Amino acid sequence: MAKEIIHTDQAPAAVGAYSQAVRAGNTVYLSGQIAIDPATQEIIEGGAEAQAKRVLKNLEAVLKAADCTFKDVVKAEIFLDDINDFATVNDIYAEYFTEEPPARACVEVGRLPKGVAVEISLIAVK
């Protein structure tokens, strides 16, 4: 099965050796997004709330580039640097998954890239 690399300028450029997303068959694997403003390539300040909003906007842009929407997402993984931010991030996340939300994991990790508060990765099927 061939794979297709998905890229958009509407989401931050990769900060390492990875693609924004990869399509394999009808499945799209979105790399974890952090709160980088694609226009400036700078981290969004403002803690977990502001960062979660930016992360989901970045993911939305990558989904669009893959001809998908949040309705196509079947799995989400949320990484927090502080589990006390769970309720805040969950409320913002819920705005994007209003019906039939995907399977999900949410974990606290020791540290995230560039010192951000939240990272989210997705898997979509189209």
From TrEMBL:
One of the record's GO molecular function terms: deaminase activity
Gene Ontology CC annotations of this record: cytosol
Pfam family, one: Ribonuc_L-PSP
InterPro entries assigned: RidA, RidA_CS, RutC-like_sf, YjgF/YER057c/UK114
Source superkingdom: Bacteria
Cited SUPFAM superfamilies: YjgF-like
PANTHER family in alphabetical order: 2-IMINOBUTANOATE/2-IMINOPROPANOATE DEAMINASE RIDA, 2-IMINOBUTANOATE_2-IMINOPROPANOATE DEAMINASE
Family that this chain belongs to: Belongs to the RutC family.
Protein name, UniProt field: Endoribonuclease L-PSP
